[in-house]
Amino acid sequence: MLANLLIGLREGLEAALIVSILLAALTRLGRRELAPSVWSGVAAALALSVGTGLLLQLTSRELPDRASAAFSGTMSLVAVVLVTWMIFWMARRARFLRAHLEGELDRALAGGPWALAAIAFVAVIREGLETALFLWSGATATGGGTVPLLGALVGLLLAAAIGAGLYRGALHLDLARLFRWSGAALVIVAAGVLSYAAGEYAELGWIPGGSAVAFDVSGAIAPDGALAAVLRGLFNFRPITSWPVLIAWAAYLLPVSLAFIARTRRPARTPAPAPTA
């Protein structure tokens, strides 16, 4: 639940930030009557995102067992690629996001309400589709059920509340720090999703070592206990872990974490020169 809450919060906050920037720009330009066009684009993006999530779920249920495992593993792999790209994209472009969106808005105003709706749709749909795919993959990796979806809903609601607070000026956050810490947490979540994909591929025989156990701590952590459920929800950790799962987890987490730290590390401030006599 906590992992899906984090996904919903992070992705939802990015979408909420985009919407708040567009609405604030319209207010500043004295064109608040065009706000419904922004919301229509947002609504269309949300509807397509929800439809994508439902389609993934229905497809997985209708497929035979082996095909379903292959589908789940492959979609999880795609989700990890997209979310990794999103994490680094936001780390690189967050400071220029407002200027980019306002430039797009200036061009859209000349095209009328439909052009404005298209800008909002394109800006939000990326976050929506990534959210749908990653939430579905995360829920599948941790056993499905309604609890992961509840966590995602709570995260999305928190993101909406934060976005509203930012728009109205009632809330002030260090967004760079927030995205940095949430991005680091998402790297850990993505490592768990990738390890799930590796486990599915190993069971299918697509990669070797599916039955080779790397470690077994089921004597200390009961596989059906509360602690195991929490660890599975956060990290896709399982008390009995095979080598393909462990290798995929480490092979993603270590280099991606180091790259993310290098990308987001703030440069050291140059000390002021000492006064000369």
Q: Report the β-strand fraction as a percent range.
A: under 5%
The number of E-state strands comes to 2
Question: Cα distance, first to last residue?
Answer: 63 Å
Average pLDDT score? 81
Tally of discrete structural domains: 1
Residues in helix, %: over 70%
Task: Report the C-alpha radius of gyration, rounded.
Answer: 21 Å
Indicate the overall shape: elongated
Oligomer: single chain
Describe the structure concisely.
This protein is mostly helical and 277 residues long. The chain is 76% helix and 3% strand.
Mind explaining what this structure looks like?
With 277 residues, the protein is mostly helical. The protein has one domain. The protein has nine helices and two strands. The protein has helices spanning 2-28, 35-62, 65-93, 97-109, 113-141, 146-168, 175-204, 226-235, 243-264, and strands spanning 213-216, 240-242. It has a two-stranded antiparallel ribbon with strand order 1-2. The longest helix has 30 residues, at 175-204. The protein is elongated. The N and C termini lie far apart (63 Å).
What descriptive keywords fit this protein?
277 residues, mainly alpha, two-stranded antiparallel sheet, 76% helix
Structural topology:
Blueprint: H1 2-28, H2 35-62, H3 65-93, H4 97-109, H5 113-141, H6 146-168, H7 175-204, E1 213-216, H8 226-235, E2 240-242, H9 243-264
Antiparallel strand pairs: 1-2
Helix pairs in contact: 1-2, 1-4, 1-5, 1-6, 1-7, 2-3, 2-5, 3-5, 3-7, 3-9, 4-5, 7-9
